[in-house]
Amino acid sequence: MFNITDDFISPGNQERLKNVLTSPFFPWWYHSGTVTPDERKEFGNNSLQSKEVDWFCHKFITDGEPTNSSEFYLIEENLNPILHMFSEEWGWKLDRCQANLVPPSGNWYDRRHTSWHVDSPDDHMVLIYYVNDSPARTLFRGGGSCRPKQGRFITFDGKNYHSAEIPKKKSRCVINFNFKKI
Q1: How many angstroms separate the CA atoms of 166 and 111, rounded?
Q2: What is the percentage of the chain residues whose pLDDT exceeds 70?
Q3: pLDDT tens digits, residue range 8-40?
Q4: Which residues lie across from 164 on neighbouring strands?
Q5: Which of 41, 101, 111, 161 counts the highest number of beta carbons within 10 A?
Q6: Rounded CA gap, 120 and 100, in Å?
Q7: CB 152 within 8 A of CB 131
């Protein structure tokens, strides 16, 4: 269902990404909720299991085109081996790339996760790169989970519904890539 790879990029690049993305100067944009109310119904979410949370995003690539972000150099300089593997070795095109930051809720009793979702209705491959260690796992509706560990990435078919546990004490920071077959 999903593949896990640890330490594909150097520890120095891992630290560089974490330090830049978690610095107080990195430009984040606020989002309220991971899916729309209509998507919550469409994807079969309910409030007993899932919860919409406030989070922050920085978009590097949207619909296959660079955004006005001046920060894409971070991806090119630090994650180039991953991009090279997908594009040149496996024949995929980068369609979307964004960094996501979910701050801790501080609510130790709430065991819900974000809404089940797919990133795109089109055929695609998802790669999630974990910027930092966090206890807030990536969950898969069909079963299984992956614990965020700095330097780890997971890949899976984009048609698999997934969500993230809501972090309680420590922020969860990831870079999400969507690739489409060329």
Answers
A1: 7
A2: 99
A3: 999 999 999 999 999 999 999 999 888 777 777
A4: 138
A5: 101
A6: 16
A7: no
CB of 154 within 8 A of CB of 111? Answer: no
Per-residue tokens: 91: 């024949």
Distance (Å, whole) CA 145 – CA 164: 9
pLDDT, one tens digit per residue, over 1-12 is: 899 999 999 999
Residues 6+ apart with CB under 8 A from 2: 140, 144, 146, 154, 155, 156, 160
In one-letter notation, the amino acid at residue 41 is K
Per-residue tokens: 83: 């991009």
Q: With a cut of 90, say whether residue 109 has pLDDT above it.
A: no
As a whole number of angstroms, the distance between CA 68 and CA 93 comes to: 19
